[in-house]
Specification:
By secondary structure, the chain is mostly helical. The protein has one domain. Helix content is about 55%, strand content about 10%. It has a two-stranded parallel sheet with strand order 1-2. About 10% of the residues are buried.
Length: about 70
Amino acid sequence: MHDTTKLENLGIPSVPVATTEFMTAARAQASALGRSDFDAVYVAHPIQDQTKTEIEARADAVLAEIVTRLTG
């Protein structure tokens, strides 16, 4: 998240992506970096046991939100 907030602070649109397992940690880190408004896009946890097709489906499910945040 640190590099992502650096990019955002430079005016470069960025979107962190994490699994739901790391939601609390990601929000705490964003807050510690002075960007409590900067939340990640979350996908279901876990992903390590998913097939390529299942991971692609999870990515597809959040793609519109990522694009909106990058272009909005």
